[in-house]
Design brief:
alpha/beta; 29% helix; OB fold (Dihydrolipoamide Acetyltransferase, E2P); 2 domains; 17 strands; five-stranded parallel sheet; Rossmann fold; 32% strand
Amino acid sequence: MKVLIIEDEPYAQKELTRLLEQTGRQLEVMACTDSVEEAVEWFQLNPMPDLIFMDIQLADGLSFEIFRKVKVTAPVIFTTAFDQYAIQAFKVNSIDYLLKPVRLNELNNAMQKLEEIRNQFSGRRTFLESGDIDRLVKSIRPEYKSRFMVRLGDQFKTVSTMEIAYFRAEDNEVILVTQNGRNYIVDHSLDELGQLLDPRVFFRISRSYLVGIHSVMKVSKYFNSRLILELQPEAGEKVLISRVKVQEFLKWMDK
């Protein structure tokens, strides 16, 4: 049986290959691809494998994008860090799923399941269509907070996350700063906000700041391998990124 592994973590690629060897089955790993782009190119240049192991989150996006670009007719076993409740939606379109870290007994069970239904597989729809992909993406993409209720004197108003420049922790309070410079106290810690907000838009740069990407006007080198940010509106103090967060921050800015 010829197998394709689509996985962006080198260690996970090697570990899955090792586990496949331990199943005792005659399996040949044809290739390991680590991105949507590389997988699509591989499918365009090679015959369809007998089985695909596919991670959900790849280096350049969700693996469901592969199905938008090429027709994949081989059975798929998803390998993912998402729990079973998030991935029930696509079980009908795949042979099985394996939660990371993959365990040998679970891999054997998935392979046995494939063998049991292989005779009927030709009559089953094994590829995802556009509507399937949209539902899958929606099922695993968390709902992030889109607005905050803040107090304004004796009244309350809502502030859209699109209006927020950054959050600042100050004197045991967390202050929401809007793009037009208005300040509001919110009833969340920065740790809680990090879970509530879209990580593509907001980044925790330090113990005191959680910044929106559109508020970062300038990034400069600072001593001791740190970075200093110029925010809009101005923070009124030096806003620094520690050395340990520099690479993660630059990667976030470059997405």
